[in-house]
Amino acid sequence: MSLIQWVHFPPLGDARGSLVALEGEKTVPFAIKRVYYIFGTQPKVARGFHAHRDLKQVAVCVTGSCRMILDDGSTREEFLLDSPTKGVLIKDLVWREMHDFSEDCVLLVLASEHYDETDYIRDYEQFLKETKS
Ligand code: TYD
User: Fold this and answer.
1) Could you report the per-residue pLDDT of 47-88, keeping only the tens digit for each?
2) Buried b (16+ CB within 10 A) or exposed e, 57-82
């Protein structure tokens, strides 16, 4: 199965413009405990480079675009996040990297847990070890 699990957000716009609603346990397949967004990313900066042990996230570029890499320790897949109606689900123990942020990029992330630094795996070798155990 592909590592890339798209989550489609039906646009609810009308003649006035567009609207997307994100609802926990409905459009987003978990209860949302935390929302954060990454914006104003400086040129040539790449972010992420970590995995989580127990965290599900949905990421969507509400404006602009970035290139995302997901890696489960055996497969590495790369794609563009470039639509406010298309998010990607990132499950536990998946290494993520974000590259090539457009200047206007606002990357919105919905998370299943509160922030917990001890849940991060920031070392790629350690990540590989944990995917194999
Ligand atoms: P980090 O997750 O390392 O960013 P990246 O997306 O590049 O991997 O987060 C950067 C900093 O922000 C780090 O010091 C932790 C802090 N942070 C919070 O305090 N709460 C949060 O919800 C997030 C995502 C990060």
Assistant:
1) 999 999 999 999 999 999 999 999 999 999 999 999 999 999
2) bbbbbbebbbbbbbbbbeeeeeeebe
